[in-house]
Amino acid sequence: MIAAIICIAIACYIIFYTITICLIDCDVELAFYEKFGKSIGHLKGKVVFITGASSGIGKHTALTLAKYGVKLVLAARRRNCLEEVRSQCITNSGGQLTVNDVLVLPMDMLDINSHQKQFDMALAHFGQIDILLNNAGRSQRAFWEMTHLTVDKELFELNVFSVVNLTRIAVNYFNSRGHGHVAVTSSLAGVVPIPYSGSYSGAKYAIHGYFNSLRIEKLRTNLKLAVTLLCPGPTYTEFLQHSFIEVPGKSYGISASTTDRRLTGERCGYLCAVALANETRESWMGIFPVLPFSYLSVYFPVITNWIVAIVTPQKMFKMRDGNEGIVTENSALGHRIARVYGSTSNG
After folding, report:
1. How far apart are CA 85 and CA 104, in angstroms?
2. 193-215: buried (b, 16+ CB within 10 Å) or exposed (e) per residue?
3. How high does pLDDT run on average in the chain?
4. What is the pLDDT of residue 10?
5. Residue 57: its pLDDT value, please?
6. Is the dihedral of CA 56, 59, 64, 67 positive or negative?
7. Which residue ranges of the chain lie beneath pLDDT 50?
8. Catalytic residue among 200, 236, 270, 295
């Protein structure tokens, strides 16, 4: 009798959990924190240093934080774009922030030797930095075997090594304070390997290795360090257009469409802010079917292997980019995928 009750309870739990992850746009923990956790307002008055803040997820996270009175360091290469974001942040704050509360910091993440200077400038301006959010980076669309090694190196320099270097500077500063918070915009591609983005997926897996190692290393030490991995799925930003391809010096050149099945940049930025306020370890964001597939891949890998063996890489590519027709667009990658796996009109 007891065994039967336990089995029924487990079955109900599995059914409830399955339905839930098909309806929400983030992992269950983050969805719980959004409703019942610490408000983003918990961060009011704190200083958040955001790289890649001129557009995309970095911009939208900054706009959300500003609404709750969070002071900001906006870092990216394009000063004019940063100035626009600063103006929007001040407006969004509803009078909580002034010009001095949002620092524009032109910064090239690839200029590793400038990182310490840039961090010190932000520190001198505010007197403290509470959270470092590493958001700068580029994606990739390319065939694995055709990717030039230079592309791998360039992508890792930007998406991994520059992030690690700036984070080490921040952690050394947090060591002197005794507490701090580092976060990085990873990707669901760092949770589930995806086709046609081998270098990018590899870089995100590397980021997970670095940051998870850091979190464990600082347990039971004098440093109270929160480490957060933010893992968005397809999101409507300018990110896709600037993706690496197989050859160095060129970009993918296809913009995301408003009709794509993607999380909006605003929603993603809000969820990132919720994750920061609640100091989550790893947060997933994405709409159906990306989020359920990620859960399936992590918790039921054998079943996932069966599905992947049946589903073509072309269909996974469609799901990843949230666009049923993107592989037939005017891009070399799209045309080659169509030739290898057949016309997209055949599904």
Report:
1. 9
2. ebbbbbbbbbbbbbbbebbeebb
3. 89
4. 81
5. 96
6. negative
7. 324-330, 341-347
8. 200
Q: Please give the pLDDT value at position 338.
A: 55
CA quadruple 283, 286, 291, 297: dihedral, nearest 10: -70
pTM: 0.91
Q: How far, in Å, are 170, 190, 313, 318, 324 from residue 344 at the CA level?
A: 47, 27, 12, 10, 8
Rg, C-alpha atoms of the chain: 21
d(CA 44, CA 301): 41
Q: Could you count the other beta carbons within 10 Å of the beta carbon of residue 180?
A: 22
Residue recorded with tokens 């590397």: 206
How many CB atoms are located within 10 Å of the residue 271 CB?
27
**Distance set, CA 210 to CA 51, 168, 184, 215, 266 (Å):** 18, 11, 11, 9, 28
Residue 94, phi-psi category: left (phi > 0), alpha (psi -120 to 50), beta (remainder): left
Residue type at 49 in one-letter notation = F
pLDDT tens per residue, range 189-201: 999 988 999 999 9
Q: How many residues would you count in the chain?
A: 347
Query: What's the rounded Cα separation, in Å, for the pair 201 and 196?
Result: 9
Annotated catalytic residue 200: yes
Reference 215, options 134, 129, 281; nearest CA is 281
**Helix 313-321 / helix 290-299 crossing angle, nearest 10 deg:** 120
- Please give the helix or strand (H or E) that residue 76 lies within, else none: strand 71-76
Say how far apart CA 216 and CA 23 lie, in whole Å: 32
Q: Which residue type sits at 134?
A: N
Alpha-carbon distance 51 to 30, whole Å? 23
